[in-house]
Amino acid sequence: MASTKEPDSSRRSDRSRRAIHDAALALVGERGYRRTTIEAIAARAGVGKQTIYRWWPSKAAVLMEAFLDLAARSAEEAGPQAGGEHGIPDTGDLAADLKRVLRATVDELNDPALEGPTRALTAEGVVDAKLGAEFVEKLLDPQLALYVTRLRAAQEAGQLRADADPRIALELLVAPLTHRWLLRTLPLTHAYADAIVDLALGGLTSRP
Amino acid sequence: MASTKEPDSSRRSDRSRRAIHDAALALVGERGYRRTTIEAIAARAGVGKQTIYRWWPSKAAVLMEAFLDLAARSAEEAGPQAGGEHGIPDTGDLAADLKRVLRATVDELNDPALEGPTRALTAEGVVDAKLGAEFVEKLLDPQLALYVTRLRAAQEAGQLRADADPRIALELLVAPLTHRWLLRTLPLTHAYADAIVDLALGGLTSRP
Q1: Measured between CB atoms, which of A123, A144, A201 is closest to B204?
Q2: Which residues of A touch B152 (CB under 8 A)?
Q3: pLDDT in tens, B111-168
Q4: Whether ipTM exceeds 0.95
Q5: 3-state DSSP call for residue B160?
Q6: B124 to chain A: which residues are within 8 Å by CB?
Q7: Beta strands of B71-127 (E only): which ranges?
Q8: Are B62 and B106 a contacting pair, CB within 8 Å?
Q9: Residue among B129, B175, B199 minimizing CB distance to A179
């Protein structure tokens, strides 16, 4: 009767994975990356630590997957409007589309559930080059690729400067939000996201 | 004979301070912020730990001063051309002035002597809000104020959009460099600094 048992076992396995993800995120938010151990994650998730060792090769791998899962859940909740699962919307109005996705980013960065673990993982990547590279490859680059796609479409539509490299152009939009959030220089608001889009698209130079 | 003794004692005190700064920077680069202790700084600097306790209220205060000292030395070496002691140059050519100062920033961020301790202090500020706020107030804000001054002068000269807030405009210039450096997404080069200035001033929007 394996065929009727499997869905149950797969559901149990999904529940365990989710519990492990949540435990890993909570612990890293509370203690920081280095002081979070596989043992503590297992205890918090109510599973044996052998379960974690069987499914993941390292603590970094558990956390990376926990973040991917969290980002996927967050994108699902935000819906396609926020650019979640379907990339950045393309309504033909570049400024409006960028404001929508940057406002959603502001909301995500200000989400208290995400803040602790995201700060802990980012800080660790700042000092640990190997973890930082994994973080960029698995979590950041896929997000940045969505901007490249949208900006390239704008370029093809004649809305973006032909000589602008979309991979660099996106940094004018994304980096200011990250900078404010990481360094806590000033409040990170929707108005700020809008101002960044307006200044980046229009340029700082005065025109006649 | 106090008047002839004081210069000697003051020179000794300067030497001790510099030794303490250097020890603090080296240790935080090697071990990270949290694992750097006053005791270890004193031992490395060859002073008694009471000397440190007498001069500074906390480990954070020692490090903050060490960074201010390091930044001052680095600015001195770079000379006034790099915008060191005299703020951002104002030759009347805004793009050229910004490229000069952002290229100097690229060199500073790529300086191996600064990298370890700067990463360690920044990472700690990312997870420790109190230290982060001190870092921003004492180290970052004074640097950003130089951009505000230069951008405001450009605005008065009719070169910067009248509706641009200089405090926000500067983030389009500074944040992309910090973003690349902190997250190690792609190489941080002079060509990148130039591209950021050109895109930020000219804007991403295609113009007829």
Answers
A1: A201
A2: none
A3: 887 888 889 889 989 988 998 999 899 889 999 999 999 999 999 999 999 999 999 9
A4: no
A5: strand
A6: 123
A7: none
A8: no
A9: B175
